[in-house]
Structures are given as structure tokens and as C-alpha cells.
């Protein structure tokens, strides 16, 4: 990871005034920093972290009282805003009845903002999104008080007091009902001082997981790793550990033990998964180990559950949260352990709004909370391996599958030697293997990381290609829905009956396969097989995904056809054959991590095969079977492959051996994009150990109608990029209609 350089000693900000008491309040809006407000005498005890409402222009906004002394060195902070004189200071309106934002989370917000060069308010917005309203109004209940000596005594009053002292505190209506009186009687007793009000919060919505509920019997090689992690999680304190092990080796089983140790210590746990579709199987497994489900956090959570969960995390009643990357910004009261499962996944990189890498920021969060963090993967990223190599991260490895299950036998099918029939995409070698698998009563899977019917539609008469009107991208046919759509901007139109350019009839031809087309081929080839398609557009949510997975586990399916959603950590005990339709798919495009990512993805797909007793086979259809990626998958020797990857990136100071920042210019017109990009090029930072590549048109030169240009700043590891980029941006004023987005540690180069 690349952030050590943000950690110099902070210098205190000078107080701006010595007059009226003031508070810095950060608003969840894109301002460069907090605003000062006057603290009225009624709020004299206002503390950093308090959630307050303040005036902003004519509106009222919710914000957070921020720390006066910045937590980062000045070169990482936005230029200070002009102080407002006492006389013009507006007062804080009120403190909201909300748990305050913990100090570690406030520091984390500052840190992420400084590292990603985002306005801190936009980072705060991620932490605050749901905090502004109380979960459920606390109920007022009535309990017995010392009755005044002159209390008028009646049988009705006596019954109420009896019930209140035996069953109380109760809400007024309930108290009256049980005593068989009107609520007026209760009110009268309250007014007389014989009952006192007690505000009861609703019971915590999440039951506490029991670390002793159902511990596993650990196998050879698992016990040592589990003990090691238990010790780390039980002791607390910051550390980073890579837990590496082939698919099915029991990594999940083992990190659940670390969770148990953290729970025993009375701390909360955060588990990050790359995709929430995975959470169904995960929570089930968690429940079998701990006797109750964990709290879930992701963007599809309904507003009520979001609110309840946010508050439960803040109050500490939610002990374990499993979520997507946004869960990093939850207000944990006492975070004691973070786990990042499938740490190599690029889904951890958020690409819009605040662009941050959740795996890297999770390490920062762990450090700020003085908690251990465990990164889990069968195919760790080169970033993480480099940190292990440099001694910054610990390393635990599991080498065998649990219970003696063998690793699948991975082979390539050389498509030049065994081509499919004309117009088809499955080699006879693969179809025969599928047939044989199904004949044995076992399940098979076809993997193709491409949604829809065909990625390109071409007119055979005039050569016209169906292209998105808003993007530099082909339109993808989705035959089942009879539409062609853009996978970048969501544009869609009915599939045209004739060529839109030359109007030739029956001339539009699909080029290449998507899962729909493979499904069509599989239906024709295996007419008796029970097929199931798993793609993100055919499975509308976690529930549908869980249902599909359950059907596979119940053996209601013979052949699964899917996109990357099937590659995830599913456990399919009866699946013994995986066919990869196009193993070369991810290798094009010249992306820095194309080879690494292909190995990771395909290894993960391969890992779905043979997870129980029956051994698994993986067949990779490839036109370049001699490629190092295919060789690594066949041999299973990822260490050597990653070593070669490292040796290719090291000399040019490519990540993780150097730092990258991407500047993306986008504009209404190509002229504005070019002018802004040229201005960035002309003012590019120069110096030893750094280099600016570009400007150049982005591969997606037009996206959602915006014209895009890219520049890339590459620097040696010891150089901090943020101050350089900040100063660079200050030298350039974007043209009208143009903007510049910064992506630190870019993962996508589109
Ligand atoms: P990974 O996360 O490395 O892919 P898992 O933890 O999912 O591996 O384990 C693979 C399978 O083996 C799961 O079904 C899991 O329940 C089972 N398993 C692993 N270790 C044990 C164990 N010690 N006892 C019982 N089952 C285990
Ligand atoms: Zn588009």
C-alpha cells in the first residue's frame, strides 16, 4: 500500500480568533473544509463528533463538529479558508440526538479525503448518509416514584401503582390497559409525581453472536493458522496479515476463529466482501458458527434498516457487520478487527464520487482504530505480496484443500487444434467433457465474463457497427429482452429490424458470444440438461442469487452458465467440471494488471470445481495456450507467476513499485477537453523520479456524451503524489464545461 507518506507529524492550525466561542463544523457537501460557527451558551459543552444542525445560506444543514487541530501535515490539507470575523459568525442551531461520530472515524474521513484529494465533506457524506434521523422514536414509559404524602388514594390509582411497581416501566396505554383504567388515571398520577417517566430505547435489533456456539474441528495445517489469528485478534493492536490459501482450504473457517477471539475480547468486527451478492451464503455460514446472523451493510439496504444498522453500529449493539466497501465508513464504537475477503478483487475500488480502494483504506482504518486486519485471498494482489515481501505484512498460508479434496485438474483446450463448428463457440473437447460429467450425475459450469447475446452487431451489407450514441462503445445485444444496450451508460433501444445505416434487411449479424448466446448453444447441444443462467442482469439481487445457489446445491441444475457472479466464493459440492469459454478475454486492452487479473479471476472460477469428494476438472478454451497466464493456471504455480509479474513492473516503477495518479479530463466538447488536457500537459510537474504520460484520448474517449482525455503521473514510491497533484491542479483552470477528476492508485484505465 502506498500511504506511509501521509503520516508525518501534524502541525496545529492557528486559532483564528480569540473572541466568541466557535466550533468548526464539517458539512457533507463539496466545500474545501469545515466552516466556523458560533457556539451559543446553551451548547457550551459541544464536542468534536457531535452531530449538529447549522444554517447555510437560507437552508439548514446537518454537519459534524470537527476537530480544531488538523490530523494530517499541512501539505496534505486544503489551503485554509478565510476566517470569518466574530460579527459575521452564525450560531449552531442545535445538537441532534445522535451518537457522536467517533474520533477514529473523523480522522479516517480526513485521511481518505487527503489521500484521494477529495473534499472532506464528500467523504463525510459517506459516513453520515443515514445518521440524520433517529432509528425509532424512543418510547416514554412510566415507573413507580416515591409517592407524595398528600396523594389522593383511589382503587384505580392503587391498581396502576401496583402494576407499575411489579411490571413497570410501561407505556401509559399499556399500564392503563393492564390496570383496567383510562389513561387519564395514569396521566393524573404522573402529574401528581407518583409516576416518573423513563425513556426506553427499543431492544437492540441484532442479537449478540456467541463465539462458543459451534466451533469447528480444525484440520492439519488449519490449527496453526487459526491459533495465530486468534492470538492477534485477541490481543488487539494494529497489524496486517495476509491469509493466503487455495480455494477450499478453509480460509473462511479460520478467519471466523479470529472473529470469535475478537468477540471474546468485547470488540466489534467488520468484514468486507467485494460483492454483496456473496453475503447470503456467508451469513448462513456465520450463523452456523455463531448462532445468529451478522448485521449487513450495502447500498441496497432499505432506508429503515440502514438507519437501524447505523445506530446499532454506533451504540455497539451490532457486534459483527458484513458489508460492501461503504461499510468502512460506519461509526464503530469499538472496532477490534477488520477482515477483507478476496482482497485482490478490483470491485473494492470505488470508481465514482470519491475514488478510493476499500482494501487499502481498510488498512488505514485498522491503524487508526488500533485494530488488526486480515487480508484473505487464494490469489493475493501484487500490492499485498509486495508488502509481505517488504516485511510490512505478516503472512499465513494454507497449502491444501480441507478434508483431502484435491485441487482441480486444470487443462487448456487449444482452440486452433480443436475449433468449434462454424458459428459455435464450444470446442468438441469441451462439449464431450460436459456430456460425460452430466452422464455421471455431476454438475458442470460454463463461464464467460460477458453479459448479453453478442458484444458487437455488424451489418454484413455495409459494415456498419451498432454503436452507443453517448459513448465510444459497441451496443450489446440482449436478445431475451429484444434490446441493444450500452454497458457503460445504460443507453438502450429496441434491436433494429434493419441496418440503421444502409437499411438492408436481415443483414445485422451478431459477432462473438455473450452468455445468452452460449446458453442458446448449450440448449441445442444438451437438449435434456437442466440449465441455469447466472448473470448480474438475470439475477436482480442477493435473494435471487441465493435462490439460484441453493438450487445448484440441491442438484436441481445440471449445467450452470454464468458471468463473473459464478466465480465468487460459492461452495457447490456436486460441481466437478468448469469450462471457461474464452480464457483469453481479459488479456487484451494493455491494462497494467490484465494478466494478474485474468489469473485471479480464472483461478477463482476454477475453484468452484471439485470442492467435495469428487475431483474437479477445469478446461480453458484459449487461442494462446502458451501464454504465461494459461501456464500458471495449468501448473497452479502462482508464486512464480506473480514473481514474473513483479519483475516486469519493478524496472519501470509501475505499482506496487511506484505510485500512479490518473487525471481524467471530461468536457461537453472535444475542444474544451483538449484545451484543458493541453493546459495540464503544459504545467505538468517535473522532477527526478517522476514522469507524466499523456495527455491522450481515454480508451472510452466519449462516455455519457462527455469527451475524455487522460494523463498519468508516475512516481517513485518515496515521492508523495498528493501535494504534487494538488499544486498541479492549482496551476490549471478547466475550460468552461470541463472538469478534472483525480484517481489516485487507478485500477481502471478506461
Ligand atoms: P476457502 O475460504 O479457503 O475457500 P472454506 O473456508 O470455504 O475455504 O472451506 C471450504 C469448505 O470446507 C467449506 O465447505 C467449509 O465448511 C469446509 N471446511 C473447511 N475447514 C473445515 C473444518 N475445519 N471443519 C469442517 N469443515 C471445514
Ligand atoms: Zn453508452
List keywords for this structure.
alpha/beta, binds zinc ion, 29 strands, single chain, 750 residues, binds adenosine-5'-diphosphate, 19 helices, 29% helix, Helicase_ATP-bd, seven-stranded parallel beta sheet, Rossmann fold
Q: What name does CATH use for the topology of the largest domain?
A: Rossmann fold
The CATH architecture assignment of the largest domain turns out to be 3-Layer(aba) Sandwich
Number of helices: 19
Low-pLDDT windows of residues: 1-5, 7-17
Based on secondary structure, the structural category is: alpha/beta
* Largest sheet descriptor: 7 strands, parallel
- The rounded distance between the terminal residues' Cα atoms is 22 Å
Task: Please report which band the strand proportion falls in: under 5%, 5-15%, 15-25%, 25-35%, 35-45% or over 45%.
Answer: 15-25%
User: Which sequence of strands runs across the widest sheet?
Assistant: 10-11-9-12-13-8-14
- Which bin fits the share of residues in helices? 25-40%
Q: What is the name of the CATH superfamily of the largest domain? A: P-loop containing nucleotide triphosphate hydrolases
Count of β-strands: 29
Q: Characterize the overall form.
A: globular
CATH class of the largest domain: Alpha Beta
Radius of gyration over all CA atoms, rounded: 30 Å
Average pLDDT number: 90
User: What is the number of domains?
Assistant: 5
List each distinct ligand once. Answer: adenosine-5'-diphosphate, zinc ion
Describe the structure.
- The protein is α/β, with parallel strands linked by helices.
- It folds into 5 domains: 111 residues, GIY-YIG endonuclease (3-Layer(aba) Sandwich), CATH 3.40.1440.60; 62 residues; 184 residues, 3-Layer(aba) Sandwich (Rossmann fold); 180 residues, P-loop containing nucleotide triphosphate hydrolases (Rossmann fold); 88 residues, 2-Layer Sandwich (Alpha-Beta Plaits).
- 29% of the residues lie in helices and 22% in strands.
- The protein is built from 19 helices and 29 strands.
- It has a 7-stranded parallel sheet, sandwiched between helices. Strands 15-25-24-16-23-22 form a 6-stranded parallel sheet, with helices on both faces.
- The longest helix is centred in the N-terminal third of the chain and has 14 residues.
- The radius of gyration is 30 Å and the shape is globular.
- The chain starts with 21 loop residues before the first strand and ends in a 6-residue tail after the last strand.
- The N terminus is likely disordered.
- Bound molecules: adenosine-5'-diphosphate and zinc ion.
- Adenosine-5'-diphosphate binds next to helix 7.
Amino acid at each position: 500500500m502506498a500511504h506511509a507518506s501521509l503520516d508525518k507529524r501534524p502541525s496545529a492550525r492557528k486559532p483564528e480568533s480569540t473572541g466568541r466561542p466557535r466550533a468548526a463544523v464539517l458539512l457533507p457537501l463539496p466545500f474545501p473544509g469545515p466552516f466556523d460557527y458560533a457556539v451559543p451558551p446553551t451548547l457550551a459543552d459541544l464536542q468534536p463528533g457531535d452531530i449538529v444542525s447549522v444554517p447555510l445560506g437560507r437552508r439548514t444543514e446537518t454537519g459534524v463538529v470537527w476537530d480544531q487541530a488538523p490530523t494530517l501535515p499541512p501539505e496534505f490539507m486544503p489551503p485554509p479558508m478565510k476566517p470569518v470575523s466574530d460579527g459575521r459568525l452564525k450560531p449552531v442551531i442545535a445538537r441532534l440526538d445522535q451518537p457522536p461520530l467517533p474520533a477514529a472515524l473523523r480522522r479516517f474521513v480526513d485521511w481518505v479525503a487527503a489521500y484521494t484529494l477529495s473534499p472532506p465533506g464528500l467523504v463525510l457524506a459517506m459516513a453520515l448518509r443515514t445518521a440524520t434521523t433517529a432509528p425509532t422514536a424512543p418510547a416514554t414509559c412510566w415507573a413507580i416514584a416515591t409517592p407524595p404524602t398528600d396523594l389522593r388514594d383511589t382503587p384505580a390509582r392503587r391498581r396502576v401503582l401496583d402494576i407499575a411497581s411489579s411490571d413497570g416501566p410501561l407505556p401509559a396505554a399499556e399500564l392503563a390497559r393492564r390496570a383496567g383504567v383510562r389513561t387519564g388515571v395514569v396521566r393524573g398520577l404522573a402529574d401528581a409525581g407518583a409516576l416518573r417517566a423513563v425513556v426506553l430505547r427499543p431492544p437492540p435489533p441484532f442479537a449478540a453472536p456467541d463465539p462458543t456456539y459451534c466451533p469447528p474441528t480444525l484440520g492439519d495445517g488449519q490449527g496453526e493458522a487459526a491459533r495465530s489469528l486468534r492470538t492477534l485478534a485477541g490481543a488487539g493492536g494494529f497489524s496486517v496479515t495476509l491469509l493466503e490459501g487455495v480455494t477450499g482450504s478453509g480460509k473462511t473457517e479460520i478467519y471466523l476463529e479470529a472473529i470469535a477471539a475478537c468477540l471474546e475480547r468485547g470488540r466489534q468486527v467488520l468484514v468486507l466482501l467485494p460483492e454483496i451478492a456473496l453475503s447470503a451464503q456467508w451469513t448462513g455460514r456465520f450463523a452456523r458458527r455463531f448462532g445468529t446472523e451478522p448485521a449487513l451493510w450495502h447500498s441496497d439496504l432499505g432506508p429503515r434498516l440502514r438507519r437501524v444498522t447505523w445506530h446499532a453500529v454506533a451504540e455497539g449493539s451490532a457486534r459483527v457487520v458484513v458489508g460492501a466497501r461503504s461499510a468502512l465508513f460506519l461509526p464503530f464504537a469499538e472496532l477490534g478487527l477488520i477482515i477483507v475477503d478476496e482482497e485482490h478483487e478490483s470491485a473494492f475500488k470505488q470508481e465514482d464520487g470519491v475514488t478510493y480502494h476499500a482494501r487499502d483504506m481498510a488498512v488505514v482504518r485498522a491503524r487508526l482504530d488500533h485494530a488488526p486486519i486480515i487480508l484473505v485471498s487464494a490469489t493475493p494482489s501484487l500490492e499485498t505480496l509486495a508488502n509481505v515481501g517488504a516485511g510490512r505484512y505478516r503472512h499465513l498460508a494454507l497449502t491444501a484443500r480441507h478434508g483431502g479434496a484435491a485441487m482441480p485438474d486444470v487443462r487448456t483446450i487449444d482452440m486452433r487444434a480443436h475449433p468449434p463448428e462454424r458459428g459455435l463457440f464450444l470446442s468438441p473437447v469441451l462439449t464431450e467433457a460436459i456430456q460425460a460429467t452430466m452422464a455421471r450425475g455431476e454438475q458442470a459450469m460454463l463461464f464467460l465474463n460477458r453479459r448479453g447475446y453478442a458484444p458487437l452487431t455488424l451489418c454484413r451489407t455495409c459494415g456498419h457497427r451498432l454503436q452507443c450514441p453517448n459513448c465510444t462503445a459497441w451496443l450489446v445485444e440482449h436478445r431475451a429482452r429484444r434490446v441493444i444496450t450500452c454497458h457503460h451508460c445504460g443507453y438502450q433501444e429496441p434491436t433494429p429490424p434493419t441496418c440503421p445505416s444502409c437499411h438492408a434487411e436481415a443483414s445485422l449479424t451478431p459477432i462473438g458470444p455473450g452468455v445468452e448466446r452460449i446458453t442458446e448453444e448449450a440448449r441445442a447441444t444438451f437438449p435434456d440438461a437442466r440449465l441455469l443462467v447466472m448473470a448480474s442482469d438475470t439475477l436482480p439481487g442477493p435473494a435471487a442469487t441465493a435462490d439460484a445457489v441453493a438450487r445448484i446445491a440441491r442438484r436441481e441444475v445440471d449445467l450452470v452458465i454464468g458471468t463473473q457472479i459464478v466465480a465468487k466464493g460459492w461452495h457447490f459440492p456436486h460441481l466437478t467440471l468448469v469450462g471457461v469459454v474464452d480464457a483469453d478475454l481479459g488479456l487484451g486492452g494493455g491494462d497494467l494488471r490484465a494478466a494478474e487479473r485474468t489469473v485471479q479471476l480464472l483461478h477463482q472460477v476454477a475453484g468452484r470445481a471439485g470442492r467435495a469428494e469428487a475431483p474437479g476438472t477445469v478446461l480453458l478454451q484459449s487461442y494462446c495456450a502458451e501464454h504465461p497466464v494459461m501456464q500458471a493456471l495449468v501448473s497452479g504455480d502462482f508464486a512464480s507467476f506473480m514473481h514474473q509479474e513483479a519483475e516486469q513492473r519493478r524496472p519501470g516503477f509501475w505499482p506496487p513499485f511506484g505510485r500512479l495518479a490518473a487525471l481524467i479530463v471530461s468536457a461537453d466538447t472535444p475542444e474544451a477537453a483538449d484545451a484543458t488536457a493541453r493546459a495540464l500537459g503544459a504545467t505538468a510537474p517535473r522532477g527526478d523520479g517522476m514522469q507524466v504520460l499523456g495527455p491522450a484520448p481515454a480508451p472510452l474517449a466519449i462516455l455519457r456524451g462527455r469527451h475524455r482525455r487522460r494523463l498519468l503521473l508516475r512516481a517513485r514510491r518515496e515521492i508523495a503524489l498528493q501535494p504534487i497533484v494538488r499544486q498541479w491542479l492549482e496551476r490549471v483552470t478547466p475550460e468552461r464545461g470541463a472538469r478534472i477528476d483525480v484517481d489516485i492508485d487507478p485500477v481502471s484505465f478506461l
